[in-house]
Amino acid sequence: MTAIGLALASAVLFGAMSVALRFALREGASAEAGALLTAVPALAVVLVFALAHGLHDVLSAWPFALAGLVAPGASQILFTLAVRDAGPSRTSVLVGTAPLFSVALALLFLDEPLVPALVGGAVLIVAGGALLVGERVRPETFRLVGYAFALAATVLFAVRDNLLRWLAVDTDVPASLAAVATLGSGTLLVAAFTMARGRLSFRGARTFALAGAFFGLSYVALFEAYYRGRVTVVSPLIATESLFGVLFSALVIRRAELIGKGLVAGAALIVAGGALIGAFR
Description:
Layout: H1 3-25, H2 31-53, H3 62-86, H4 88-95, H5 98-109, H6 116-133, H7 145-169, H8 175-197, H9 205-226, H10 231-238, H11 241-257, H12 261-279
Helix pairs in contact: 1-4, 1-9, 1-10, 1-11, 2-3, 2-8, 2-9, 3-4, 3-7, 3-8, 4-6, 4-7, 4-11, 5-6, 5-7, 5-10, 6-12, 8-9
């Protein structure tokens, strides 16, 4: 499967994870505990893939473990807080602005080429996110601080994307093992943070496990995509998770999320951006 197909698969799965996470949080667990209960099953999923491919030279994966402290370590805590306060569809939309940061970092530090179609696609995706953020009608449970959490998580995702691509260019570590290393260190960081805050709880563990399964599969596809394609190609396609987050929210929790014309219009721009990047990669 090509980098483009893998990136889109990762986006679909991440969007599904966002909605499942919202359902799990409704069962009363704290956001910190939710982040941990999502990360643990995700780690189990990527570990299965790694074992299927064979674990070789595990110690050489340590640079990926450092990247995991950024994401999914700190980023997953922030993302879960964002879903709690802003909802899955709006959080997914803001995370869709990641190409703005990822492409900028890739151009500055990875010497990737500035291709007009890539820039145009990224601009369309970000414009779609901006349109959704500017909507006037929001759920009663919405809290503005959720946007701050989402943007902070997005910056960390962008840093992770570039670290991953930089490490993947010249390494013998397979993608499956790299995914285990990042999720392993990230899970340890989330666990330490959750216990330090005294927020450990197992409420909604089954629903969080479903979210974690989506998350783990999304991570496997994400790593395989970055092992095959440039940040400027993969990251904007990953950002179509905004579309899928809105789509799944509309199908499952439309009334609670108050999905209107602004969300649909923003999703259309995001789809157009992904199509442009895919057509002129």
